[in-house]
Amino acid sequence: MTTIFLTTTIPYVNAAPHLGFALEAVQADVLARHHRRRGDDVRLLTGTDDNSLKNVLAAEASGVPVRQLVDRNAAAFEALRTPLDLSFDDFLRTSADPRHPAGVERLWRDCAHDLYRSRYEGLYCVGCEHYVVDSCPEHPDPPQLIAEDNWFFRLSRYADPVRDAITSGRLRIEPAARRNEVLAFLDGGLRDLSVSRSTDRARGWGIPVPGDPDQVVYVWWDALGNYVSSLDYGTGGAAYERWWAGADRRVHLVGKGVLRFHAVYWPALLLSAGLPLPTEILVHDYLTVDGHKISKSSGVGVDPVALASRYGTDAVRWWLLREVPRVGDADFTEARLIARANGDLAGGVGNLVHRVTTLARRHGLTWPGAAGPGPSDAGGVGAGAPDPGASGAGGLGVGAAGPGGSVPDGVGDPAALLRACRDAPGLVDAALGLADFRRAVGAVWTIVEEANRYLEQTRPWELARAGVPVGGILAVLLDACRVLGAELAPFVPATAARVLESCAPVDGRLPAPRPVYPRLEP
Prior knowledge:
Blueprint: E1 3-7, H1 19-37, E2 41-48, H2 53-62, H3 66-78, E3 90-93, H4 99-110, E4 115-125, E5 130-132, E6 144-153, H5 159-167, E7 172-174, H6 176-187, E8 193-194, E9 196-198, E10 208-209, E11 212-217, H7 219-224, H8 226-229, H9 238-245, E12 249-255, H10 259-273, E13 280-284, E14 287-289, E15 292-293, H11 304-311, H12 313-323, E16 330-331, H13 334-362, H14 415-433, H15 437-458, H16 460-465, H17 471-488, H18 493-503
Parallel strand pairs: 1-2, 1-12, 2-3, 7-13, 12-13, 14-16
Antiparallel strand pairs: 4-5, 4-6, 6-8, 9-11, 10-11, 14-15
Helix pairs in contact: 2-3, 4-10, 5-6, 6-10, 11-12, 12-13, 13-15, 13-17, 13-18, 14-15, 14-17, 15-17, 17-18
Enzyme class: ligase
Pfam family, one: tRNA-synt_1g
InterPro entries: Met-tRNA_synth_2, Methionyl/Leucyl_tRNA_Synth, MetRS_core, Rossmann-like_a/b/a_fold, tRNAsynth_Ia_anticodon-bd
């Protein structure tokens, strides 16, 4: 069994959540569900970055106390669990969770040999909470000119150790283009990093620097520390040993805009403190609307809660997983979401399962213990009912004829369908190992394509009218639907559950067919 600590970034709470963060939350949830199904020991962490100057300025602009704005918006992020069907194990708020200040303070003390006071003068982008050379490509507002005494971290010491971790594979960055981007940044040389801000400029909001109440800890040091503070690093709890020091995999999901912080600054801090590095950083690109990045700062946003309320959770999850490429931004419209849900979930998965289960009931496919007559066209039953939670091949119809008897000679060839069912688990494993969610759902979608092709090849409704036994054909198709439901489970859990319920015998017979997924209307 593999132990996996899996994290999202923690977003600023200067506004309510948007679809851009929903993308990362859903991707992390898919990985967590997938690995749990494969028998791994998984802990999924998410949370909110409350201690940002952006949050303070947003509260001032709204005319409300900072605490009120932060609490309200942080609650909205935590509440994404229900509309997005998220299965996170832990949710940490940096301004409210007692584990966090202790962890940040311990990390500061563990890096004390690399900290010193000095004066900084330069341009500061409030949007990304970072000093910049001139303008910031991520945020249109001009940076502020700042001059103040700060604490500095000797980042320049760690260019070679961080580069070695990446090139050796100890710290894997996917996709490769992002890995190369980080290496190019390292090749440009590293300057020491300002890691505190004056308490006055921070409006007194944030975690005080240990032993220096005139300074607060830089929000990125604060935020990155959540990955270990959530594990009771500050108090020496057992969770840190199990999920960080002793974990087989420490996996961060991040957006491309914060890659530098996670792939350079965070490893440098960990090396300074003598702590293990993350094993993987999986990077996604942006969602856009009309070509403009979705973000709270720009005001370009799509409300994921409203979308899920209007079209259903699985429609939102499916679009994020099926449409967003591994590399490159994806432009969102509601019309595309509706078209994808109708084409794939309603017209593809739903239509296939409804046709197969309707035919199976109509032609008397039964399992031992059924009340009433056995299969009217097959003359017998198979060895037993399938396990509806099974994943992969080897169930009712895959590799065996099942309760319907053999497949008639010369009537279609199930080989491609059987192969799609057998191969899907391994292909999903490989794709998700590269954070290629679109390729992963594509591997599952192949089952739908091959099942529909086999259904049209054999046309069992016509064979039955001609007196040809079709139980074996339907058994193969029914088992393919079960494999489909099992492999869909990490991606669209509710739809997958309905597929499996439709294909699971009750008292030896399939339940009455019901729609697996409704067609959406704009």
